[in-house]
Amino acid sequence: MTKSGYLSIVGWPNAGKSTLMNKLLGHKLSIISAKPQTTRGVITGILNEPDLQMIMLDTPGWIEPRDLLQASMKKFILRSIYEDADINLWVVDGSAWTKEELEWVDLLVKTGKPLVVAINKIDNSSLEAVAEPIRAQIRERAGSPDLAVFSVSALNRMGFKELKQALINLLPEGPPYYPTDQVTNRFERYHVTELIRETLMRLFHDEVPHASAVVLEEFREKSGQKDVISASIFVETEGQKKIVIGHQGAKIKQVGTEARKEIEANLNRPVFLELRVKVKKNWRQDAQFVASLLSADN
Ligand SMILES: Nc1nc2c(ncn2[C@@H]2O[C@H](COP(=O)(O)OP(=O)(O)OP(=O)(O)O)[C@@H](O)[C@H]2O)c(=O)[nH]1
Ligand SMILES: [Mg+2]
């Protein structure tokens, strides 16, 4: 008997959803940063084990939308919990808990889907003491004293065995949806743009990370030579462009070097990376541009 199904991973920005998915998968698929709103589209990670396929959907962190980009992100979350999911996994940052977060319980219970909760970031040992009252509040709000609430650390896989077993138990029976050697349904070129964006999120602060979008212009494989990857970094203002380029181009050079190393490690082969910085005013309000950035066809 085989089991297969969709697990939607949701929660507030910065809760550790992407870290958790990558670590469950044992493969770095989703980009990670210390800044909120790192993930924009839905990243699919496919966990294949004997007689089992769990398709994990890493979603963007929930925020009330202030622009079209964020509105699209919210739409992805709703679709993923109401339509795609066989199971919803809600990730809570145990080190930053507030009672407002209980609204998630109402939303997730309304979907009628099986719910599992992971209180994350309990690597700081004193947090285990914090997890117990959070667990009690969540169960009370859900009106379900048996609700599955686990304490985990995505960073070091603490509590993963129990969490994973609970998820597998809830997985429906059925044949795999994807070939069992596939780890994602996203193309290599999408991961390349995401790794460039991850580098931008790491190297810049204030408005630049959130005003940046990366578009692949060319990905040319040359037999016997390095692949040529050419990408554009879009920002919203001339000021941001100046910041990204840096004095005499020093900053963009650093972005290129660091992103190239990440890409090479990910693709497991050397590449030639060429970056350009362009201004696209208000791109976060441009429906067509946002749709093309987040499209699952990328
Ligand atoms: N201490 C600790 N930090 C963690 C843990 N899991 C994730 N982090 C850190 O939390 C930050 C956010 O992690 P992400 O995985 O990008 O969080 P996310 O929920 O995907 O964030 P968005 O995509 O912005 O919604 C990063 O700096 C991670 O290294 C954990 O278990 N313990
Ligand atoms: Mg994320």
Number of helices: 10
Task: List ligands, each type once.
Answer: guanosine-5'-triphosphate, magnesium ion
Cα end-to-end separation: 34 Å
In what order do the strands lie side by side in the largest sheet? 2-3-1-4-5-6
Mean pLDDT: 95
Helix content: 25-40%
What is the β-strand count? Answer: 9
- Derived from helix and strand composition plus strand pairing, the structural class reads alpha/beta
Largest sheet: 6 strands, mixed
* Content of β-strand: 15-25%
Report Rg.
20 Å
| Low-confidence residue ranges | none
What is the approximate shape? globular
Order of secondary-structure elements: EHEEHEHEHEHHHEEHHEH
Report on the architecture of this protein.
It is a single chain. With 298 residues, the chain is of the alpha/beta class. 39% of the residues lie in helices and 22% in strands. Strands 2-3-1-4-5-6 form a 6-stranded mixed β-sheet, with helices on both faces. Helix 3 links the parallel strand 4 and strand 5. Helix 6 packs across helix 9. The longest helix has 18 residues. The protein starts with a strand and ends with a helix. The model has no long low-confidence stretch (mean pLDDT 95). Bound molecules: guanosine-5'-triphosphate and magnesium ion. Guanosine-5'-triphosphate binds next to helix 1.
